[in-house]
Amino acid sequence: MSNADASTTAELDLPSEVEGAAAAPGAVTTARGHIRGSVMLLVGRLTAMLIAFGTQVITVRYLSKSDYGAFAYGLSIVALVQAFLAVGLDRADTRFLCLYEERRDRGRFLGVIVTEAATILSLGVATLLVVALGRHMLFGGGNASQVTTLVAVLIVLAPTQALDTLIVNCFAVLSKPRAVFIRRYLMEPSLRLAAVLAVVALGQSVGALAVGYVVAGAVALTVYSITIIPVLRRSPVFKLNGRRLRMPLRELFGFSVPLLTTNLTFTATTTFGAVLLGKFGNLHQVAAYRAVQPVAALNMMVLLSFGTLFTPVAARFHARGNTEAMRHLYWQTTAWMAVLTLPVFLMSTAFASPLTTTVFGSRYSSSAPILAVLAIGYYVNAAMGFNGTVLQILGATRYVVLGNLTALAFCVITSLALIPAFGALGAAVSASASVVVHNIIKQAGVRRYSRVGVYDNHYTPVFLVIALSLVACELLVPLKPSLPAAVGIVALATGAVLLSVRRQLRLADTFPEIGRLPLLRKVFVA
Question: 327 lies in which domain range?
Answer without folding.
Answer: 3-455
